[in-house]
Design a protein that fits this description.
Distance between the termini: 28 Å
Number of strands: 7
Strand content: 5-15%
Number of helices: 8
Structural class: alpha/beta
CATH architecture: 3-Layer(aba) Sandwich
Radius of gyration: 18 Å
CATH superfamily: NAD(P)-binding Rossmann-like Domain
Number of domains: 1
Shape: globular
CATH topology: Rossmann fold
CATH class: Alpha Beta
Order of helices and strands: EHEHEHEHEHEHHHE
Helix content: 40-55%
Length: 259
């Protein structure tokens, strides 16, 4: 399928590794000019090199902490009017809510709710003026099926999802769609951190916890980041102009609900 987005420009947040990098790769393969982002210069440089191997358009890296206003300005400097925005952020650490103070809550909300909203605020008007825009927010399956130990993530990401539910309907008539991808367990560094926490709590090795996690998933495995990247690229295509305000769970069938 031709996604018909070649020569468009995309900003993909937190794309030096993991799910963000998978999204950047999928878009780059479609001929999209991709601006990738990370905090670590060395990691980002390696990601840019990897993406350039499959890209048919320009790939540019921006080292920035986008949870700050200065970082967001740096990210938008190469292109303040992108056609595509993929919001992504590493989730806050797991734990017991009794241990979290106000500052930890502020950090979680800032990274996983307010930062995406500020980037949308900075780009959505230009998308509407052009009559085309695609915004994809990568959140978490915990938005629909909360995990108690991930309370910081549950709360912040659900807040973003609630805000988008209204905004998506306001901009749809101007050719802009906003959708969410809600990933379950994927083979990423974030998963390893979560599995380590669970392994420690259960008194078993990380390897045992990983095996257990795969067995508990209906698919019998964890997700491949490439699978999510390809879905992201499709949501950014011209074929999804009538698909907006939706939250697509990608978790191998773990979520048991019908809706």
């Amino acid at each position: 399928m031709d996604l018909q987005i070649s020569n468009k420009t995309a900003i993909v947040c937190a794309s030096s590794k993991g799910l963000g990098k998978a999204c950047a790769i999928a878009l780059a393969k479609e001929g999209v000019n991709v601006i990738v982002n990370g905090r670590n210069a060395d990691t980002l440089a390696l990601a840019v090199q990897e993406i350039e191997k499959v890209a048919t358009a320009n790939v540019q890296g921006v080292v920035a902490d986008i949870t700050t206003e200065e970082g967001r300005q740096a990210l938008l400097a190469p292109c303040s009017t992108p056609d595509i925005l993929v919001n992504n952020a590493g989730g806050p650490p797991p734990g017991d809510f009794r241990e979290w103070d106000v500052e930890q809550w502020n950090q979680a909300v800032n990274a996983n709710m307010l930062t995406p909203i500020m980037l949308i605020k900075a780009t959505v008007d230009s998308m509407m003026e052009k009559g085309f825009g695609r915004i994809v927010n990568i959140t978490s399956a915990t938005v629909k099926a909360p995990i108690p130990s991930l309370g910081l993530s549950n709360g912040a990401r659900a807040g973003l999802t609630g805000f988008i539910a209204g905004l998506a309907r306001q901009v749809a008539s101007r050719g802009v769609t906003i959708n969410g991808i809600l990933p379950g367990p994927f083979e990423t560094d974030r998963l390893k951190t979560t599995m380590e926490s669970r392994a420690n709590a259960a008194g078993i090795s990380i390897e045992e916890q990983m095996v257990k996690g795969r067995q508990l998933n209906p698919s019998g495995r964890f997700g491949d980041p490439q699978e999510l990247g390809e879905l992201c690229a499709f949501l950014c295509s011209v074929h999804t102009g009538y698909l907006t305000g939706q939250n697509i769970v990608v978790d191998g069938g773990s979520y048991p609900g019908t809706l």
